Amino acid sequence: MNVKTSHYKIVLFGVKSDTCDLYDKFKDHIDLVVTLDQTEADKYHISGKKSILDLVNKECYQSNSYTLSTKECKEFFTNNTFDIGIVYGWQRIIPQYVLNQFKFGVFGFHASPLGLPFGKGRSPINWSLILGFKQVYNHCFRYNSNVDDGDIYNTTKLDILPWDNITSMKQKSIIDAENVIFNLINDYTLNTIKLKKQNNSIPESFFPKRKPKDGIINLNKTTQEVFNLIRGVTYPFPGAHLFYQDKKITIWDAVPFSYTLFNNNNYRVGEILKIFNNNTFVIKTIDGSLLIKDFKCEYDLNDHFVGNRFK
Q1: Given pLDDT bands bounded at 50, 70 and 90, which one contains residue 2?
Q2: Which residues contact 3 (CB under 8 A, 6 or more apart)?
Q3: Distance between CA atoms of residues 302 and 192, nearest Å
Q4: Residue 39: what pLDDT?
Q5: CA 6, CA 52: separation in Å to the nearest integer?
Q6: How many CA atoms within 13 Å lie on the side-chain side of 130?
Q7: Which H or E run contains 246?
Q8: Torsion on CA atoms 238, 118, 150, 231, rounded to nearest 10
Q9: Is the link from the previous residue into 124 a cis peptide, with omega within 30 of 0?
Q10: What is the pLDDT of residues 182-225, one digit of tens each?
Q11: How far apart are CA 144 and CA 149, in angstroms?
């Protein structure tokens, strides 16, 4: 039996809200979107997950495997031909058999605070904020079968400003991605894509996967370190959290408040120092204090809580 074969020039892989943004920007160029079917997507805790199906006015392939490893996936990719793939919001390795089907390759993005091959792996922008870096280098590179290992098409330095959080850094990243993809599509059309090797003078390292429990705030850390954690895991990620009487309080937004006002032995680390009438409050840190601006908890905080401590 003859199997009908289709040829797709530009293919977008993704399952997140950022994927939808890129599709909307480049929908006139994209021939095919590869995303997850809802049953498969529900198995994963994908921060920022969003269905792209309502936006797509081109063909869409809903994979039943995030690893593209099922028989159905293999039949689809081996029975069709493709020119170039763009990955944004698909946080799994694209298997080699899929890469082999793309004439010009499959391209994706990875940020690193020092530049690849430093900081391969998971959640690099989150980690860059948490560790207090002041920049990330956003790489667009051609995939191979190894993690974040391919030759680089473009590198953009994105500054991390003192007031940035993961939301604003993702906004910077998507703006850069739009610019780079525009150039990549042009170079693909002209057959002028140029690549360079990763910098061998930088040591290779990998960031580990972050889990919701990694958002527990360690009050033995400095004010700046606690602030960096909060801004590194806020929306759309699970958030940082403390505990009060075994109840979790999730903190979405906070800023260092003062290094001098409460810096004496009268206050205990984790103590609620002040509750304001705009539903914000101040807690003691090991070297100062932190203003909690946005949070979620099971308590209606009022002056009664002043003097109590978070754990």
Answers
A1: very low
A2: 79
A3: 63
A4: 75
A5: 22
A6: 21
A7: none
A8: 20
A9: no
A10: 999 999 999 999 999 999 899 999 999 998 899 999 999 999 99
A11: 7
